[in-house]
Amino acid sequence: MIRTRKAKLEDAPRIAGLWHEMAKFHARRDPYWEVSRGCRKGYTTYISKVITEGCGGVFVAHDGGEIIGFVMATGASRAPCYARQDVGLILDLAVTKECRRKGVGERLCDQALGWLAERGFRNAEVRVATANPLAAGFWRKMGFEPRITIAEKHLDSTKLSPRRSGGRKDARRKPPKPS
């Protein structure tokens, strides 16, 4: 029987394995999602910190003792110029290939949304990879509506004119220091 529960620290390596499986799936479809060496270890450290510090809600789905999915949610504040200041974020949700389309993702999403609602968030957002139409369909089914498109452009500084690069070969600049 499939159940969900709050993640424990000892779940971190398995969660990182599921995340890595999801990351590789995305990277095969779009190089934007290519992961770095040691990413699985890095994600284990990251998710361990989130679990121990309680700075996000992390839940797992399990069938018996085997973890078959996870979700992570957190909150963020927007710029003070917006009427809606705080927003809940679902950062990651992954389910093993064998357990997809069995309601596991829905249960995990419900856990994350409940966690956000308990903390006073009235809205939740999720980023969906354009190269993953199945995920887009899942999130629509869960009631999420597209609001923004994030566009990306690769910058090749060798092809920028001196005027565009500020006359410097390296167009990267440090942000100004606060006055």
Report what the structure shows.
By secondary structure, this protein is an alpha+beta fold. Helix 1 crosses helix 2. The radius of gyration is 19 Å and the shape is globular. The relative contact order is 0.13.
The CATH architecture designation is 3-Layer(aba) Sandwich
Q: Terminal Cα separation, in Å? A: 59 Å
> What is the global morphology?
globular
Low-confidence stretches: none
User: What letter string, H or E per element, gives the SSE order?
Assistant: EHHEEEHEH
The CATH H-level homologous superfamily? Gcn5-related N-acetyltransferase (GNAT)
| Rg calc | 19 Å
CATH class value: Alpha Beta
- Structural category is alpha+beta
Number of beta-strand segments: 5
Task: Compute the number of structural domains.
Answer: 1
Task: Summarize the entry for a quick read.
It is built from four helices and five strands; from the N terminus they run βααβββαβα. The chain has 179 residues and is of the alpha+beta class.
How are the secondary structure elements laid out?
Elements: E1 2-6, H1 12-29, H2 39-53, E2 57-63, E3 66-77, E4 86-95, H3 104-118, E5 124-126, H4 133-141
Parallel strand pairs: 4-5
Antiparallel strand pairs: 1-2, 2-3, 3-4
Helix pairs in contact: 1-2
Entry keywords:
single chain; Aminopeptidase; 32% helix; 179 residues; alpha+beta; five-stranded mixed beta sheet
